[in-house]
# Entry
Amino acid sequence: MSRRRVAAVAFAALLLLPAVSGCAPGPGPTADPASPPASAPPTSASPSPDATPTDDATDDAADDIALPESCEDVFSNELTARMLDAGQQLNDPSLTMPSTELPAGQALLESVPRLHCTWGAASEVGAATDVALVDEAQAAQLQQAFAAEGYECADLPEDPAQTRCAMHQVFEGELPGELGEIHVFRANAWLSTRWLNLDMTGYADDMVAQLWR
# Structure
């Protein structure tokens, strides 16, 4: 969902030497005192512009976000109302669901700045989300790890700065249900979500719109 090239300008200076005349043996001709001595024409060098970040680097930095202060800052009023209408309370302490089952993801979440949010209580319905701040290398490693586990990872055509990895499982039989994960990588943020038996339509889009508004 990478850092950049820095342009450098090299200087070239041309040294011009005066020509020496006379080929007969003996002392060379005496220079005419009325004639000015030959001198090299002045040379000029193009000024070196200050090294500045590329446009891509500037855009990436502009997209970086600060860690939200509370979970209320992560979700819009509309999505919050939808969850509450479905009986899913925000941050019920009984729900201890992680936002991913990927071991590499869980390990990284323990070492980076993050905000953990949940919807629902201890039951067969709920969702957990972490907003975590990661660097480019960490994001790339996570995307590779998710892809290796069979998650579908792709850049969003409508937002090339954003990469998403997702999985969805449906269970049938005595305990039917469904669960899934969706992971958003954009700029310096990783939005990690795991859900169980819950309508997640527009959930990731809502977070992106709220955090990058």
